[in-house]
TrEMBL record:
<dbReference type="InterPro" id="IPR040079">
    <property type="entry name" value="Glutathione_S-Trfase"/>
</dbReference>
<dbReference type="InterPro" id="IPR036249">
    <property type="entry name" value="Thioredoxin-like_sf"/>
</dbReference>
<dbReference type="InterPro" id="IPR010987">
    <property type="entry name" value="Glutathione-S-Trfase_C-like"/>
</dbReference>
<dbReference type="InterPro" id="IPR004045">
    <property type="entry name" value="Glutathione_S-Trfase_N"/>
</dbReference>
<dbReference type="Pfam" id="PF13410">
    <property type="entry name" value="GST_C_2"/>
</dbReference>
<dbReference type="Pfam" id="PF02798">
    <property type="entry name" value="GST_N"/>
</dbReference>
<dbReference type="InterPro" id="IPR036282">
    <property type="entry name" value="Glutathione-S-Trfase_C_sf"/>
</dbReference>
<feature type="domain" description="GST C-terminal">
    <location>
        <begin position="86"/>
        <end position="200"/>
    </location>
</feature>
<feature type="domain" description="GST N-terminal">
    <location>
        <begin position="1"/>
        <end position="80"/>
    </location>
</feature>
<protein>
    <submittedName>
        <fullName>Glutathione S-transferase family protein</fullName>
    </submittedName>
</protein>
Amino acid sequence: MLRLYYSAMTSAFRCRWALEETGLSHEVIHLSLARAEHKSPEYLKIHPLGSVPALVDGDQVVLESAAICMYVAEKDPERRLVPAEGSISRAHYYQWILFSMTNLDSVVHGPYLRAFPRPPELRSGTATDDERTALRRCLALLDDRLAAGWVLGQQFTTADIILGGLLEWADVCGLLRGADTAARYLARLRERPAFQRAAD
């Protein structure tokens, strides 16, 4: 069975969401950041940097949320979250995952970290106008795609999970104000039963 080491409101959410989308058998092991359980000697043997998430599959460990999500997608016998190997859709799948984890994350991560320790009622005002402008500039590349459906068109994939996880962070800290297409796309993602199960 797959074991996901998880903390709420971290990038581990994307991994839990991917597992829920596939229905693969798994166990979620909650780590409290407040109690520094991610820095315990036992967990440091799994993730030497003491970060979440980590996925354990037998005696193997996979780190980094995007890598975990992509691994989970490959393990799904029905391959619901990944385009056909060798297809142009597969190239675009890699493209948008890497875009999300580089360009988009670089805009979202800082404001989200400023929001994370705050009470919920104060989080949405954390982002600045300049940061919102930077996010809209990034998302302009995806506007047509997000308005029409999913990142790759009609097929929902891991690329949507990675992008959606970052947009969830963006919304928490107020970055999505003025990014109407992305906000509507995030609302559709939140309607997915797997998203809702992962968010419980």
